[in-house]
Amino acid sequence: MTTQPPPPAPLHLISVIGNSPGVGKSTLCRTLATWLTDRGAKVDHFQEPDILTRPAFRPVAEEFADGTDSVRPETLIAATRAYVTGSRAAGLDVLVTDALIPFIPSLVAWGHDEASIARTLRDLTTALAPAQVTVVYVHDDPTAALRRAIEREDPDWEHWYLTKLHTSPGTRAVHDLPSAATHLRQEAALTQRLLSATPWTVIPVDATTRNAPQTAAYTRQQLLTLLDLPGRQPDQ
Asked: Using an 8 Å Cβ cutoff, are 98 and 14 in contact?
């Protein structure tokens, strides 16, 4: 009798998102991608600017640049489906995405209400299947996080960030740092409500009292219970 090989492990998508600029999500995303690669997984690290250059997301970039500065939810969903399908065909094990899925900050800025965003997440759930989805949600006090972002970025960043929010239909109330922090707190509450209604695993990561190495170590420990990694050993 011929023994059939076991079915391949499902593709695992790890979406790293944050409740505010300056919480360290991009640093964590890079660290996780390197860690998974070192453990033998075939990893795609989707960095935040990649949405403008990846072939699967070309329709998103084109639609955003057509003068409306927004993208229809169905375009986002189709691009996500194409990205996951292509990754599965390429034999990848893990996708580590930076501020990509589930697109909530963009949808809020473009003026979508909670019901519309909830429908988009339900459609994303279907588009991502059968991939396993884990959302790593890094959070900190928005006032402190924004201060770190301003110190880290170039001198024009604060003006760029506030202008981006103030000129978007769903975030016009933002006009200074306190109103930006208020908006981010409201958006965080919305994000938590919406994610709780999905079948995805959500790992909250409190960065308030953790530095970058501590945040990474905590997140790795949480992920080890979910990932089937080649040659898996206890984390160090």
From this structure: no
Q: What pLDDT digit, counting tens, does each position of 26-39 carry?
A: 999 999 999 999 99
CA 87 – CA 91 distance, rounded (Å) = 7
Q: Which of 224, 220, 230 is nearest to 93 (CA)?
A: 230
CA dihedral sign of residues 36, 137, 172, 160: negative
Helix, strand, coil share of the chain (percent; to 5): 55, 15, 35
Strands of the sheet with 132-139, listed across from one edge: 43-46, 94-98, 12-18, 132-139, 201-206
Q: pTM surpassing 0.90?
A: yes
Work out the average pLDDT over 86-91: 96
Residue 13, φ and ψ in degrees, nearest 5: -105, 120
Q: Is residue 74 within 8 Å of 122, Cβ to Cβ?
A: no
Beta bridge partners of 94: 12, 43
Question: 132 forms bridges with which residues in the sheet?
Answer: 12
Give the whole-angstrom CA distance, residue 182 versus residue 76: 27
